[in-house]
Fold each of these.
Amino acid sequence: MSDIRLDALAIAAHRDDIEITSGGLMIKFADLGYKTGALDFTRGEMGSNGDADMREREADAAASVMGLAIRENLGLPDADVEFSRENILKVVRVLRRYRPRLVILPNSEQRHPDHFHSHEIAREACYFAGLRKLDCEGEPFRPHKILFSTYYRDVEPSFV
């Protein structure tokens, strides 16, 4: 178990998704003294611009700008994030390790399949992480609050 306890954890499919959807919020939280983190599902190797190594350097620089306490990457294949029990348990382990009070997930209305599957995986992991009898390492834990971020203007936000 980690010594770091997060106040907020942003989760997304690709390196740069969190910066696009929640970067300002993560900066604001860090400025207010909250411990924040990010979990990327893929290395971004299928992106039209750059490659996985370049995206890693950019993600590290962005983590510094956002004031993140941690940034992890699950290493799932880009453009092939699958909704599976195995992937849910990978996220459960992260949630149990850092025990974030707030989790920020991609909204379910997504054009890119990786974004949609990341929403499904992370949402279910937030529930399963709290099950005492789940066969997965770490102490049971469930986030206090889940927020959904969006990429689209046609989604009606509950707050801005």
Amino acid sequence: TALKTYRTAAEKLTAERGKAAKKFGTAVTTVVRTLGMANAQFAVALETSAGDPRALGDDVIRFDFSANPGQPPRALAKVASGGELSRISLAIQVAGLHDTGAATMIFDEVDAGVGGGVAEIVGQKLRELGAQRQVLCVTHLAQVAAQGRNQFGIRKEVKAGKTFTRVQALGASERADELARMLGGVEVTASSQAHAKELLKRAKG
């Protein structure tokens, strides 16, 4: 009797998971395609086997991914690069924004391999996520940094033969200067400063 009750519940759970998997896969795919992977496809695969009863049902759940057209999604852990994994992670968090999740999330160079307009979209998604969670992001791109509500400059300093890391909160004018440096490299020009101010203005808008 107990086994029959379990099977009924497990079958119902599998059916509900199938619906949720399709919906979630579509949502993540939509977001990840805005992050520089126009042909990406994300899917949630369910492998169901009626073996011994288990606390979480009969399903084994796997995330599958394909970045290129003509290639079927395969296990995410085996096919995605580090930069792709970062952006997929961001897309998963954005797609599940209204669900329960970690209060603080850390993204380390989630913008790896992107630039220009795509980098700005990555920044916008991070800002969107940060409206409901605390998001810490390490970035080398001004387009992403400009979208942050707060920005810190990080420097390495060598004193008396020892290396120290200095973290400094940046004010409004300091942010513009830092963004200009990120945009312009060694020499900060008037055009890079103007671009930095425009990025900050767009982010606030």
Amino acid sequence: PRRSSGNSKRRDLPRVLLLFARTSYRAEAFLEAARRLGVDVTVGSNHRQALADFAPGATLTLGFTDVARSSATIVRFAADYPLAAIVAAGDDFTPLAAAASEALELTHHPSQAVRCTRNKALMRERLSEAGFSSPWFRTTRLDEEPAAVASKIKFPCVLKPLALSASRGVIRVDTPEQFVRAWQRIRGILEQDDVVRRIGRLASELLIEAYLPGREVALEGIVSAGELRTLAVLDKPDLMDGPFFEETILVTPSRFPEQVQEDIVSLVSRCAAHLGLSDGPIHAELRVDADRISLLEIAPRSIGGRCSRILRFKPDESLEELILRHSLGMPHDDFLREPGAAGVMMLPIPAAGVLREVVGLEAALEVPGIEGLEITIPLGHTVVPLPEGNRYLGFLFARAETPDHVENALRAAHARIEVRIEEA
């Protein structure tokens, strides 16, 4: 992307402020999308190293915990370098993107709606009060006695932190004994300094809700002036019945019957409207069990990790380009998903320790249908599996004529990969 110098006030190109945290996988994809669209980019981050590759004047050091302070910084910056859009490349910066966009009257989901979806308990309350199908749920403070709480609930149930993503800290329990162990494990996660800095007071509470059976599915879309445009419905073919809920394979198009997919879209559209998500990307997670469809979560952002790579739109657009087009008020409704099927496997971390070697990568790439493989954790780094961990080993990509062929290719390629981890 074009980069402004510290002494320049470019006004000939629309400028996008791209916000991303140190751990974001998405920055490169958004920067490439901005380059293709010919827009100027300023990068905002909370981590100086993440900004090191950008010229002075093209970067803005921002925190995501003090939203009011960082929003004021963005408004002052925009007085000299006018912004046409603010886009967050991940969860942490979505509240700031919404607040600053609101202050500058830019296209974005309202701040109140973003705050609601960032708090899983508050989202449940709002949807339940409106009559949407919902599991029973309650919130509890971590300073309560877990055995006493366990004596008052039904099993099986799921314990969740209020504001972490990627299934971190999410545990299913079937007995009071499992409940107490899971509680203590999640408390250990929420007491970590980085988590407390990220989610503040929400680190002191837990959401407890009924376990919902069924197959998981995801929906990717963009809401424009209150109207949902569905970009993809993605199957999760692996059973996710706990005790942990690590995502592995995503495949699109979905293999659910057309009527079920229509019902999925309808539910997400109505939930988004009720929560106030009116202008921006959304990523929803649902469970389908016979004729019951239940929303698990809905986020005011696009799909995480490197998963967006499997979504391509004719004539030649990425998901990130469609998101930028929407934010900038550019046409984005005429782009259709490319035909055929595509999928991604988020490579799981099999054990805790130090990553020493990943072998079989070339053999995995030789599987018909496999079109890419990225290992995103460097050798020598410490790796931590779910529920404590918040990263994947990497991403495996496939493309073929049918979803079955894609799924089979991903499984065959993964079987050729061996991960060697040394106990720390």
